[in-house]
């Protein structure tokens, strides 16, 4: 019995969504050995706008590489959350960057402050996407954390391996913590800001 | 009347085909303002294998983002040239990296030694993909050289802007030269090796 798993990553232009999609696709396709198609689309409104990257996973060749009903939706800003949450399946998984997404449109969601973690723990907002990849690897069985780590290290610039490995691990720890707090029936509370330095 | 223009870039794993696809898609979608979908696919055989990146361009939203009949096919190695040339339309454009592709399967093709130019002129094989982007911008009207330059500079690591701009320009110069030599009826001769240092 074949399966199809659809992921959309979205946010604003500078948040590294496209690199994130490529790393996720390579983790699943090259390191975990499944069929993967990874896509990004641009329209005339693309300049300065929002960014969207999609990853489709299957156990057979993928004929239609565009997402239709999402199994997993990551929103790195409020605008993309509002724009796309209706594409999520009823049982689908919503993950938001709680730094920027404060209005959660559905009752169930994992809220983790990826950008805040990147900023406070690493002084580098640009690793928020890697923090998010770490979290994602703990929240879905579609990718293994080993494959994610291998794919990240293969793609990031030489000399930044330690920073990126640490960012991944911070994301994994934040996700484990969020899972513990998960009740399954209500919005998961965001981690209080003052605990950030210690806990991540 | 709507159009659809299909591009496939292919080669071996380390040749930077995916970054090339993203830069090309951003040049056309963000800077030139057309609709673009950019895709890469992986299968269980992906580890250590060949790499393939596709860019579809249209004047309307793209429903099916996978290439079916190619308008433009760039082959950076012999294996991918052999594997995919049959997907080219009869009037389609074939561009090969003459450093690695020596057997040209169809009578019409642009042969430019991208990797050799990168190696001899810049001592950096890794800019072969940027040299190829420069050439491509001269060989197809689907992207402007201005848009390609803006997209390259937005994506390459800080500090490498001059190297990449020079690589683009070397590719443009090589393509202009190849176009002059183009007869339209036979295989375009590769540029003789001994002239490389002077002419690019």
Describe the structure.
The structure is a homodimer of 200-residue chains. The first copy, chain A, is of the alpha/beta class and 200 residues long. Helix content of chain A is 40%, strand content 22%. Chain A has helices at 17-31, 78-84, 114-122, 128-139, 145-155, 161-181, 196-199, and strands spanning 4-12, 35-42, 50-58, 70-75, 88-97, 110-112. In chain A, strands 2-3-1-4-5-6 form a six-stranded mixed beta sheet, with helices on both faces. The model of chain A is unreliable at 192-200 (pLDDT under 50).
Short description:
Chain A is α/β, with parallel strands linked by helices.
Poorly predicted tracts of residues of chain A: 192-200
Mean pLDDT of chain A: 90
Question: Biggest protein-protein interface?
Answer: A-B, 29 and 29 residues
Q: Let me know the largest β-sheet of chain A.
A: 6 strands, mixed
User: Per DSSP, what share of the residues of chain A sits in E-state strands of 2 or more residues?
Assistant: 15-25%
For this structure, the quaternary state is: homodimer
What's the total number of strands of chain A?
6
Side by side, the strands of the main sheet of chain A go 2-3-1-4-5-6
Number of helices, counting only DSSP H or I runs of 4 residues or more of chain A: 7
Radius of gyration of chain A using CA atoms only? 16 Å
Helix proportion of chain A: 25-40%
Structural class of chain A, please?
A: alpha/beta
Distance between the termini of chain A: 40 Å
Order of helices and strands of chain A: EHEEEHEEHHHHH
**Basic shape of chain A:** globular
